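Need Putative small auxin-up RNA's 3D structure for a figure. Predict it.
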Amino acid sequence: MKQSNKGHVPVLVSKGGEDMERIWVSIKVIHHPKIVEFLEQSAKEYGYQQGVLRIICDVDDFKDILANIS
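Structure prediction for Putative small auxin-up RNA:
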């Protein structure tokens, strides 16, 4: 079943490529400098791909960052 969260984009988050967790990120914070930094780092690691965004970061750390910038 596909989950849809209006105003959010799905991001797969994992440290080092192990099991990735899908986290819904508000489009309001997707351009935050810290999120952009994570996306740029991931582009270097994975290349630019179509589909779900991927971020290399500890899941709990990423959730804490989102809570602080939201």
